[in-house]
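Notebook entry, structure prediction.
Reason for the run: the old model in the group folder had no record of what sequence produced it. Starting over properly, with the input documented here first.
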Amino acid sequence: MDPVVSVRHLTKAYGDLQAVADVTVEVHAGEIFGLLGPNGAGKTTTVECVQGLRRADGGDITVLGLDPRTDADRLRTLVGAQLQESSLPHRMRVWEALSLFSSMQPGGPPWREVMDEWGLTPKARASFASLSGGQRQRLLVALALVNRPRLVFLDEMTTGLDPAARRATWDLIERIRAAGTTVVLVTHFMDEAERLCDRIAVVARGRVVAEGTPAELVRRHQDSVTVRFTAPPHIVPTLRALPGVRETRDHGTTVQVVGEPSIVPLVGKALIDSGVHPDDMQVVRPTLEDVYLRLVDDSGAE
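New structure, fully documented this time:
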């Protein structure tokens, strides 16, 4: 099956600034695909080129079988978007926004149905300025979906939201995918990417520096674990001699053993064989944030 989005060696510069140096990604139908990277990495520019909002300098782009450079008008009937820093006139009412967007994107369900589906009917006459952060995001999602798109782009939706509103927004994103729409999510939040994304491309300095599922990225780029527990210091030489152990540390009665993932059962067995039975053993595995910081640091990104 052909990918929903195919980007090959995309480049885009603004004068002397090379915003996108070489991005190659594929997005498959029915997935939440994340573009993860620091501010200025080229994520938003990439998404804007893919949607036909900006013209790429080089590379090949196909979206739902169309070229956004030549089929932008047709593509807009198939794609929805909630762009970075999206907003509406402060005095515009919820029903007015949905009615307006629905008139510009024919073919979708009645706007009142969309308003009800996303829980906005009680706020139908409320102005955009009066909505809470979470309610604004819900409205912007509804506007992005008013034409029942096959593909939707969501760019840094949760920036500036409080924890409760962020969680509510995550639920909205999962509902979008559950309804059959493919999602491209642009974010720089690790917990968001790890919770929502089926696959991730890490972008730094305008290039894709890694791609895969969150678990694959962790496994591929961080191959060590730390086992931490309370034990007498005399056990440390025994643990240090175990296969796969790279480092041991002891601070009084607190012992840490660092090494390959295979050391976890070996450490447990060595402790039991030595008559040591700690009840506070912890296995600390690397996180997506650890991998991300390493990848961005290796790329030279600020």
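Summary: The chain has a mean pLDDT of 90.
The old model has been moved to the deprecated folder.
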